[in-house]
Amino acid sequence: MNRSRTTRRVLLAGGAAAFGAAIAGCTGDSDSGSGSGSGDDNAVMAGTRNQPTAFVPEELEVSAGTTVTWEWGTDNHNIHVQNQPEGADWPGESEVFNEGHEYSYTFEIPGTYEYICQPHASRGMAGAIVVEE
Fold first, then answer.
1. CA distance readout (Å), 104 to 1, 49, 111, 120
2. pTM of the predicted model, to two decimals?
3. Which residues pair with residue 43 across a beta bridge?
4. In terms of DSSP bridges, do strands 126-132 and 111-116 run parallel, antiparallel, or are they unpaired?
5. For residue 16, which phi and psi values (nearest 5 degrees)?
6. What are the beta bridge partners of residue 127?
7. 42 and 22: one domain?
8. Which pLDDT score is estimated for 32?
9. Which range marks the domain in which residue 127 is found?
10. CATH code for position 61
11. pLDDT digits (tens, 9 = 90+) for 25-64
């Protein structure tokens, strides 16, 4: 009788610890809209499992001189520049690429850079990089 209580307590304590660890691991959802989920605060996902035709995050604020990396999480995306500050020469990534592709660019001129994914523009796939001094 005493042995079954000990076993039960050990089992419950172990289960509680495992549950806590499982819950802690759920806080890094890459589709939350607050980052790419890659651990890089200067990354944008071009499509995610839950948002296949969206840039996540849709808007990213960075300091001048920051390199931003786009990571293709789903297929058939590009980065077509719509608007950028005067004097900026960001070319975007006009070719359409699939999952696994990466593209990086260092933003030097402050201002707002707006872009779309041409294949998914009708679905509202648009983003912006806001560069601050």
1. 65, 22, 18, 21
2. 0.71
3. 69
4. antiparallel
5. -65, -40
6. 115
7. no
8. 37
9. 31-132
10. 2.60.40.420
11. 333 333 333 333 445 789 999 999 999 999 999 999 999 9
